[in-house]
Automatic annotation (TrEMBL):
Mycothiol-dependent maleylpyruvate isomerase metal-binding domain boundaries: 18-160
Name assigned to this protein: Uncharacterized protein (TIGR03083 family)
Species the sequence originates in: Actinoallomurus bryophytorum
Signal peptide: none
InterPro entries reported for this sequence: DinB/YfiT-like, Maleyloyr_isom, MDMPI_metal-binding
Example of a GO MF term: metal ion binding
A Pfam cross-reference name: MDMPI_N
NCBIfam families: maleylpyruvate isomerase family mycothiol-dependent enzyme (TIGR03083)
Length: 297
């Protein structure tokens, strides 16, 4: 049996999809013509572009994992890094979707989003086979795949709220599972960090949906636990707002370090703050390939 205990205890976000979907469609229906065209944190993408990107995510999920038939798998170009490939096809979709009117886009998102809500309860969360590259290689449980999708929808929802001056879904019932999902990237983030067995790094998140997560060095790898440690080797305290923005590269690790309270081994703390919980093209690769960076995908 495949050991996935290093990911921490399972979480089940499936009941939250319906509430987030309703809130997202309600948000889009409130937007003015000017707000649809406002710039966002995603370079060169407007609010409408982010909404269109979410539609593309929905279509891809249903076509690939629910339907299967008639779905064409795309592949990277020769020598194209996977994250660059992903940025490219996301950009191609968004550019094409600019031909869709905003009323039609809302209708499509409403209809297809309802199918997403109905899809996830049909999936066995404990089954292995999911690919969540930022959490580690190999087949992972579908509870993490569902959590990854929910956290992405939440992130894009929040990016639209940020661009239009709205608060978003910041209640603990939403932000808590999002933070819990993002911090599942911590063991993989630390995979190349050597430390004695028993070394403990604690990430303490303050504010709405916060809590404590520890990563403990075992004989073969780092292992995540959703609890505090009485005497961690290194401890990092961040606000909930800083944490989700760091994990989606809305801010850089350097910016997060400036806002963090760090105690203990600073080298380990800095390593933990390299966490990224999305498929993201690093700056050195962005210099070599077209720059279509999409925070939160």
């Amino acid at each position: 049996m495949t050991d996935i205990s290093w990911l921490g205890p399972p979480i089940d976000v499936r009941p939250l999809f319906a509430e987030q979907h309703v809130a997202f469609i309600d948000l889009l229906r409130q937007l003015t013509d000017d707000e649809w065209l406002r710039p966002t944190i995603c370079p060169e993408w407007t609010v409408k572009d982010i909404a269109a990107h979410v539609l593309g995510d929905h279509v891809g999920r249903l076509s690939m994992h629910r339907d299967g038939e008639g779905f064409r798998v795309l592949h990277p170009h020769d020598a194209e890094p996977f994250t660059v490939y992903l940025d490219r096809i996301n950009e191609e979709w968004v550019v094409t979707a600019r031909r869709i009117s905003t009323p039609l886009l809302i209708d499509l998102l409403s209809t297809v989003g309802e199918q997403i809500v109905r899809f996830w309860p049909t999936v066995d969360p404990a089954a292995l086979g999911a690919r969540v590259r930022w959490a580690g290689p190999g087949p992972l449980p579908f509870w993490l795949d569902a959590a990854r999708d929910f956290s992405e929808y939440w992130t894009h929802h929040q990016q639209i709220c940020d661009a239009t001056g709205r608060a978003g879904l910041m209640d603990p019932e939403y932000l808590g599972p999002v933070l819990d999902t993002f911090l599942r990237a911590l063991p993989y983030t630390l995979r190349n960090v050597t430390a004695p067995e028993g070394t403990v790094i604690e990430m303490s998140v303050t504010g709405s949906g916060g809590g404590a997560w520890t990563c403990i060095r075992g004989p073969e790898r780092w292992k995540l636990q959703h609890q505090s440690s009485p005497a961690p080797t290194a401890r990092v305290e961040l606000s909930a707002d800083t944490t989700w923005r760091l994990c989606t590269r809305g801010i850089t690790p350097e910016e997060a370090i400036a806002q963090a309270h760090i105690s203990g081994d600073r080298h380990l703390a800095t390593a933990a703050l390299q966490i990224v919980s999305i498929m993201w093209t690093p700056p050195d690769e962005q210099d070599e390939w077209p720059k279509h960076r999409t925070p939160g995908h």
